[in-house]
Amino acid sequence: MNSSNTLPVRKRKRRLSLTTKKAISGWIFVLPFILGIILVYGPIVFKSIQISFVDLAGTASRDVKEFVGFDNYKRIFEEGANFLEAIMNGIKALIIQIPSIVIFSLFMAVILNQKMAGRTLFRAIFFLPVILSTGVIAATDASSNALANMEAGQMDANTGETSFMSSMDLATMLGNIQMGSALVDIVVNLVNDIFDIISRSGVQMLIFLSGLQSISPSIYESCQMEGASAWETFWKITLPMISPMILVNSIYTVIDAFTAPDNNVMQYVEKLLRGGTSGTALGSPIEAVQVGHAMIWVYTALVLVVIVLVALIMKAFVFYQKRD
Amino acid sequence: MDNTPKIKKESKNKIRVEFERAPLWIRIKSKFFSLNFLKNVVYVIFRYILLIGVSYVILNPYIKKIFGSFMSPTDFQNPKVILISADPTLDQYKYIILENGYLQSILKTFLIAASIALIETIVCALVAYGLSKFKFKGNSLVFLLVVATLMIPRDAIRHSMMLFFQCFGESNPIGLLLSKLDPNYSDAWIQGTFIPRYILAFLGLGFKNGLFIFMLRQFFRGVPDELEESAYVDGSNTFRTFFSIILPISIPMLITVFIFSFSWQWTDNFYSDIFFTALEPPGTAYDLVSKMPPTLTDMIKNIERKTMYQSTVVGTSTILIALPLIIMYCFLQNRIVQGVERSGIVG
């Protein structure tokens, strides 16, 4: 009986409210990342932006800088006509590539979500590029493919090694059915890029699959009961339910495609960043580095604008299921 | 037709009955000769053609490389040889494994990739958990920063990252801090080593860590709050809840992240390029780790690639690099899909 009276006497310490406590633990959880931003990433990004605003030439040490304002940015337009051209070409290519990656990965995810023999095997094969076509493997593939194409090109110029059907044949065929030449170009390019498109849609396919799995089967069941065809079910059920994933994937694809080291703009800028001046009107490697930095930030800003645009456009079509 | 079942065979606890059914021919006819069945067959065939075709496109380069890996130099002069070697040898494998230190490279790369992937997985899980389950001021700002790290192309900061980790002296916040603590501080400990990659991993800034944080955040959002609440009522603090309740239930997702991280570290050439260019090659450097033989990335750089044969050798070495990944992938690929399925990523 006594024990119940000797409850621990609380010190009248100021106790934090639950919300404050939770906020503090939240901060502790994200602390590594915050530290990273403050100590490493922030300074690195800052330095990179700084380089785009200074003149490195004429200074012995790279730590001494002369602030030149927007000169480097102006020089992009004065001297880097190739850059603007590369950006225009890059965007043109991506306008076609990005929707085709999203549509292809959605299509494949819908098929891989169906029950069939060998589904595991097909899934395994389809996600293989996610882990295999990165870094050194992708880099060596690109260089050895270039070599192989070069040597193969001497033997048979028409049938490139990577295309299944000669693109000339395809172009003639499409031309024969009265397709406009711009459209023929688009289709031929898509067919030639098929490997690229497939190998870039791995992560997107995973995200779509996860989305498809989260649609309740009872919805499909009731559709079937009401007599909806598979076609109707796809447009009326699957597509709206998966639209949040389409938004995520579009943004991811935009980021992925714009920052891929093998796209034209990135290759052009990377050459400058490494101090290469060939094909530009820039005088010295140091200038190339400065202007390269200015370019990459212009480019990043552009990517940001594209992402915001894509997000705004897609937002209008996204359907969120209300959760009880 | 009366539908009472006829007893065919009866034993103690089994019974076989037979119903009066429509004749076989009618059953077959209604099953196989309907428009619906035809539609299904056409659909299934079309589906398999598509899947096999796409699989072929994906596997084609690897198949070519595998066949190429058995070729000998004479095969390239022989016009009849396209895929299958007329004079198969294992010379390419011998050359890579015995003369280029494949096994040592594998070991070293494995140690580095596995440790970095583990650190990245745990750090990303921590950050993602903090972002998904706690409301604090600046939560969405931190999330925006995560997306920003994903969005800024890593080539944009390549140069300054190189400068940052090469001049780890007073020009740099961490270096400044360390030199305040220790007057004899020098930045030699970090140059030409793998330490920068570990620093990046510990701070959640490694390759595509933004994506991992994003995926894990979506996953943790789907974990019901009641789990944590009941743990809290039972007297467990947030960190214990995280490590003993949240982490165990998110293992499939963590495995997915680990596989991605591991394979991207395994094939990494971006960071190894940054931290070893313009410096002494690894092997002469200060750190213990870098006294070990070069990584796979360095190995592949040492192989010449001027002729068709040499480029085939490079192809063979990419097979050998990919082989451990493929083996791991075969064992864990079901987990990948499962993990992402459970994440329920919603925009």
Describe this structure in words.
The complex is a heterodimer of chains A (324) and B (347). Chain A has a two-stranded antiparallel sheet. Chain A has one domain: MetI-like fold, CATH 1.10.3720. About 4% of the residues of chain A have low confidence. Chain A is mainly alpha-helical. Chain B is mainly alpha-helical. Chain B folds into two domains: 63 residues, no CATH class; 244 residues, MetI-like fold (Orthogonal Bundle), CATH 1.10.3720.10. Chain B is 65% helix and 3% strand. In chain B, helix 4 crosses helix 9, helix 4 crosses helix 12 and helix 12 packs antiparallel against helix 15. The termini of chain B are far apart. Chains A and B meet through helix 2, helix 5, helix 6, helix 9 and helix 10 of A and helix 2, helix 4, helix 5, helix 6 and helix 8 of B.
Tell me the count of domains of chain A: 1
Top-tier CATH class of the largest domain in chain B = Mainly Alpha
- Which chains share the greatest interface? A-B, 94 and 96 residues
> Number of helical runs of chain B?
15
Uncertain residue segments of chain B: 278-293
Helix fraction of chain A, binned, reads over 70%
**Count of DSSP strands of chain A:** 2
The N- and C-terminal alpha carbons of chain B lie at a distance of: 59 Å
Shape of chain B: flat
Say which CATH homologous superfamily of the largest domain in chain B is assigned.
Answer: MetI-like
In N-to-C order, the SSE pattern of chain A is HHEEHHHHHHHHHHHH
- Summarize the biggest pleated sheet of chain A: 2 strands, antiparallel
Task: Supply the number of helical segments of chain A.
Answer: 14
Strand content of chain A: under 5%
Major sheet description of chain B: 2 strands, antiparallel
What class would the helix/strand composition of chain B place it in? mainly alpha
**Which strand order does the major sheet of chain A show?**
1-2
Low-confidence parts of chain A lasting 5 or more residues at pLDDT below 50?
Answer: 151-164
CATH topology group of the largest domain in chain B: MetI-like fold
What is the typical, i.e. mean, pLDDT of chain B?
A: 76
